[in-house]
Amino acid sequence: MERSSDPQAGDAAADTPAAATAISAHVEEIERLRGRLRATEREHAEVQAALAELQLRLESEAPQCNQFPAGCCTVDADGHLSFVNRAAMQLLGLTSAKPGQRKFASLFGKEAQTDLADFLARVFAGEAGCSCELALAPNRRRERRVLLLLGQAGGDIRQCHLALLDISRRKRTEQREQARSKVLELLASDAALREILEAIVLGVESSDGNARASIMLLDRRGDRLFTGAAPNLPDFFCESINGMDIGIGQGCCGTAAFTGKRVVAENIALHPYWRNWSEVAERAGLAACWSQPIPGASRKILGAFAVYYPYPHQPTSDDLWSIEEAARLSSIAIERHRDAEALRASEERWKFAIDGSGDALFDWDIGSGSIFLSPRWYDMFGYPQNAFGDVLGEWRRRIHAEDIEAVMECLERCLDGNIDNYVAEYRLRCRDGNWKWTLARGLVVSRHNDGSAARMIGTQSDISERKRMEDELRELATTDVLTGLANRRRFIERISEEHARLQRDDGLKAAVLMLDLDHFKKVNDRFGHAVGDAMLVHFTGILRGQLRRFDTAGRLGGEEFAVLLPGASIAAARSFASRLRRAVESAPLGYKGQNVGMTVSIGLSSIDPGDPGSDTSLLRADAALYEAKSAGRNRVVVARNDA
């Protein structure tokens, strides 16, 4: 055979084994990829089968879940709802039990998104006992709701099961109590009327995110309404109704102020009373309104409180109670403001023409010392007419010892010309021995050439009832509504006062206790919040029975309490705490024929005058309380630096 003389043919022959090897490797790579694809397809089929099995199980268990009074739902790892029972449908405002690809987060308001994402992350991470309180997004098919979510992840961590509890009523009650306390604090501190009225409006709005409220004030003539507070209504709408006449057919507020009765317009566009304002209401996004008249103490109408909704809406009994309470608070604020205005005006007058006013009149000739008192003055304090010879001396002897210094100082400043008016509130002893609060107002109407006072005239009013109401307001502003103990703000004030007292005299002692009812949440969960509240009241009664007259007990929040023991050493405080712990343990709460056990954990600390702040001792007691809880509860632990 003849050898080829072509060199390229020789090279091709030499490359044949290498090409075969490359082709073989490529074939093997293709086979590996095919194997991996088949494995992926098998895994995908297994996942689909598992999901189908899960869906069948959920559908088979749905009738049982629908019997649960609590809402139940399932959320997958992508955040989609895969199952809801009938109760959850009602709570969430869903129309179908097959939510499909609906995102669970879409049911909640924007402000709740971060908390919801954190909650679901903790649930899918397998954290035990996950819970979260979230507000649903506003929806015309349901009232504003706040839900308590309890979560548990599934075994394969591809889904989680949630229980949904409606805590809207409790949250609304808490919000209203907070708003009411704020209003009472503003009233007790003599805040401006607009500030108080806005606080009342915002308090009503805080319990329902869809609501917008306003307060309209009746003018002095009693025939027109003007805006007193409407912080969240559009300006153009407020301008359109500002100065409106009252009368039937004058919107809800004008009609309510005229008739003295509540007026409800479930649909503004269709209501005849809104004929003149329906267009501006629509532009403002207002579709429903109800208005409550604001009555004064004499039943004279002071104005009207209104609530608006962005869609046609019928008020619930809870809505009506809320607006009635708001109208009552508004009445107190308006009347107090008008009383203050009247007082300021009367202080500026130099002549007091008060016949028939109910106030007493005095006329003092300063040079001779002669004082004329009107018959009303003697009647006010229970003395016979012209009972006093030395009127000035008898008057001074009947002023309360705690008040006389301030009264005489104010009087002297007015006589000397340093102030224009003599105005003093003080207690005067009546003939029967009781004390009556009185407001004295006087004006020097003539002076001698040297500037010394020659004559003063003035009035004296009985303000005992006003003082009683102010005391009640102060008490309400510093007292926990449920237990009657000092609230957190008042208790912190007492700690500060005691700390300052110890700094003035380092020989004194005092101690503070932090207390927490053990397993209180379980009682709430098992028996309901009504029983939880009853337990707090029951515990308060036991606590009061252990206190001395000058001790202070306060509720700091929830089931957490604190006690201030002035003059108590650590040993005495430990003895007090131990007695209280035993008393609580031996006095269970009776409920429907059964005893609900109750124990308390207590941490205590001395109050050191050298502490940098008045709350330092409270923090030490709180740390000791934490140790008591960690050590098994139902025990007393002394702070480390006091042990």
Automatic annotation (TrEMBL):
Region of interest called Disordered, as start-end residue ranges on this chain: 1-20
SUPFAM superfamilies the UniProt entry points to: GAF domain-like (SSF55781), Nucleotide cyclase (SSF55073), PYP-like sensor domain (PAS domain) (SSF55785)
Transmembrane segments: none
Top-rank lineage group of the source organism: Bacteria
Positions of the PAC domain: 422-475
PANTHER family: BIOFILM ARCHITECTURE MAINTENANCE PROTEIN MBAA, DIGUANYLATE CYCLASE DGCP
Protein name: Diguanylate cyclase (GGDEF)-like protein/PAS domain S-box-containing protein
Source species: Rhodocyclus tenuis (Rhodospirillum tenue)
Native organism taxonomy: Bacteria, Pseudomonadati, Pseudomonadota, Betaproteobacteria, Rhodocyclales
